[in-house]
Amino acid sequence: MFQLSLDFFGLPAKRPTAPRIAPVESKEPFLWKHGIAVHFLRRPRARRYLLRLLPDGTARLVIPRRGSQAEALRFLERSEDWLLKQHTLWRSRTRARVPWTDGATFPFRGEPVVLRVVREPGHVRLAFADQDLTLPQQLPDYHAAVLAHLRRLAERELPPRTLALAERHGIKVARVSVRAQRTRWGSCSSRGVISLNWHLIQAPPYVVDYLIVHELMHRREMNHSKRFWALVAEACPTWREAEKWLKATRLDTLA
To answer: How far is CA 73 from the centre of its chain?
Structure first.
């Protein structure tokens, strides 16, 4: 994972004319130049602008407490060479992967789906299963755009499902976080924070529910003792089948 901060440049923040780029302070990722999707996050505790290349090839730009959207955009423009270099390195590591274009297949909710790319005047429409998204321009590879959409979907669906199951089983959680762990499907902290891998949106629904229940039961047993597995079995009778699916599915094969 690569990261760049404002201090990297060693220059005072200037205020040139803001580039004509669409507003970005939203949950939707911003499709920047070179086909790179950028997530903008405002973090009150951050002291400076931070730019990071994520494992899925998208970028994340953190805006500090006193920062502005306009300055974040200028910082992104000043970081173009650095970000493009890191993105090129990322692409070189994944060069064996076939670009995602019309007809590409990938798992979604436990089933293989086909990506359809429809070119329309002024934009491109991507469709798969019951999903539909629009991009402002054509790209040679829609991999990053589709993954960004899947992650947004996971962030929208997984937390409420977790809270619903927690309520059903009478378990209190402090917070639900959807993350991009490289090797873990989920975790539960001693403070009651449930972290789920966004790739769960690609798993079958029964696997998603099992994984959530698994982490919820750690609120009662912070171990994998016989008592823990008894709690899991009682709450999720299909846990063995779900475990087999999780053990047979490598995270790095889903994207």
So the answer is: 21
Q: Name the least confident of 21-25, 144-148, 171-175, 189-193.
A: 21-25
Considering 65, 93, 121, which residue would you say is the last residue of a domain?
93
Cβ atoms of 194 and 179 closer than 8 Å? no
Q: Which domain holds residue 172?
A: 153-253
Hunting for tokens 């200028």 — which residue is that?
A: 74
Predicted model pTM: 0.65
Q: pLDDT tens, 15-32?
A: 444 344 444 455 567 878
- Determine, yes or no, domain membership for 61: yes
DSSP 41: E
Among residues 144, 132, 14, which one has the least CA distance to residue 91? Answer: 144
Task: List C-alpha distances in Å: 61 to 17, 37, 64.
Answer: 20, 11, 10
Band of pLDDT at residue 8, cut at 50, 70 and 90:
very low
The answer to whether residue 99 is domain-embedded is no
Tokens 């901060």: give the residue: 5
Residue 100 domain flag: no
